[in-house]
Amino acid sequence: MSTHDRSTRRIRLLTPADVDELPLCKGCSGGSDRLARAVEAQDHYGWCGVRLGHSSAAVGAALIGPPTTDVDSTRIGLVWVHPQWRGHGVGRQLLQAVAAQTRRSGLDAVIGTGSRLVPTCQAPPVEWWLQHGFEVMQDDPAHPLVRLDLDRTVTWPWWSSLVERVRRAVLQWDAPPHPTSRSMRSEIPVSPAEQGIPAHPPIHPREVPVSH
Hints:
Blueprint: E1 9-13, H1 16-19, H2 31-45, E2 49-54, E3 57-64, E4 73-81, H3 90-104, E5 109-113, H4 126-131, E6 135-138, E7 145-149, H5 150-153, H6 157-170, E8 188-189, H7 192-195
Parallel strand pairs: 4-5
Antiparallel strand pairs: 1-2, 1-8, 2-3, 3-4, 5-7, 6-7
């Protein structure tokens, strides 16, 4: 079995208590600011991000930020992938998980920040977002905002199948206590079937390069 086999990966929701333990790169947002944003997101949404693990180690994470004026969405503030796991679909799995949990939270879109300059965990390349179905919602020469409209994309056959499969997996996660629900099961393995993307025009997503 390959070290990077998808069947060996587990994904779960994060709480603020988990954030300080993530082995994020040095170029990511400072610890105190990151923790404060995680607490605010947790208070509002009932979760603050997702973690993808292999054995007991974290191989990727996506953190969402506190609510913005775009109240129907979650906003990804950071996408981190361990250097040894880049190019193995980890970033894509993280986006799938955030999209599925966003739908489960009753929201319609996921927003992120792209980079046309030097990409970082907080601002991956614009092209990377676009390859995963996002569109530019607010252009900028350096850091445009991108948006994935889940109400629209679920009408596409490949996205409909994807979101439904990931949604079923998310319903079994050990989600942090939510103001309206506190009974959920423990984390589950993520199988290749749960994480595969249906066939669609050839796109080859690349993982987030991190520059410091």
